[in-house]
């Protein structure tokens, strides 16, 4: 029987060679591979600065530190996302305020954001859920109207575009993850892209304990002196991981092409069936981290797919329904009805570049048979 996961990494001999070479080099961490990886992701997306960190969650945390978010501040977040998109707000002692999503796309609903803005609101985190960009034009209008910074959780959306513009350039800061199920894998890894030199500088200090120069910069100037000016973290990525990232970035265009090919195939197979893929906006070029469908009998389909070796997954339990949030923030069922209704029906089908034609046919046929 096959065993097909919903997502997985795609590693070849060149990736392995890149990592082994770095293992034999002078730097295992904070060396030349970090800058090279940062430049590679930034230039792919058309952003000015890239700051590599240890994972996507650290990247989210760093954006809120760079914005100097404080206890008492409110940050607007969508509920249909991985918990980390909201947890980062709690790391700063601030309060996540959930704005419900749109029915068709499950992306944050700009009109719902506006209802939630108060004089305590200090930023909006928008998640390009499944790999489809949010309506960044509407988000910009809101940001301008209320003078709020925008953070994009782009962990699903490396390579996606909105209205021709790449994810990575539209928010004040955009966050990516390089977890094995994401577009580019480094094991664990993350990055923030920004066009602001000032924000980039703050992010670099935050990832290195709050210390103003890194060891390599000190080595260059021959100076031993360094100063900690604020409380930061050790959120550094290693050169070993960055080497893998650089090698993976070379294959990103092919990865994206294959993901889109699989999505087109699924779309075609599911037309005129009870399997309902999410809506894709006309202005969006989707990056398909996930291929999400809605099914009336989701729980049975999930179970039976497992029995047939297809390991689909549910993305996500709305964040405000997690026990931690209910107990500590007083969130409740009914707070975000659109996300909650979707949660009963959504299922992410296998979607990764090395999924074979045979496998994708098997997945589509099996889903159609069960739905
Ligand atoms: C994967 C992911 C993260 C966290 O990234 P890690 O690298 O696993 O810490 C954050 N937000 C979203 C939407 C994600 O999918």
From TrEMBL:
Keywords for the protein's UniProt record, in alphabetical order: Pyridoxal phosphate
Any one GO biological process: polysaccharide biosynthetic process
CDD domains tied to this protein: AHBA_syn
Annotated SUPFAM superfamilies: PLP-dependent transferases
Keyword Glycoprotein set for record: no
Active-site residues from the entry: 182
Gene Ontology molecular-function annotations: pyridoxal phosphate binding; transaminase activity
Family recorded in the similarity comment: Belongs to the DegT/DnrJ/EryC1 family.
Entry-linked PANTHER family: DTDP-4-AMINO-4,6-DIDEOXYGALACTOSE TRANSAMINASE, TRANSAMINASE
Name assigned to this protein: UDP-4-amino-4, 6-dideoxy-N-acetyl-beta-L-altrosamine transaminase
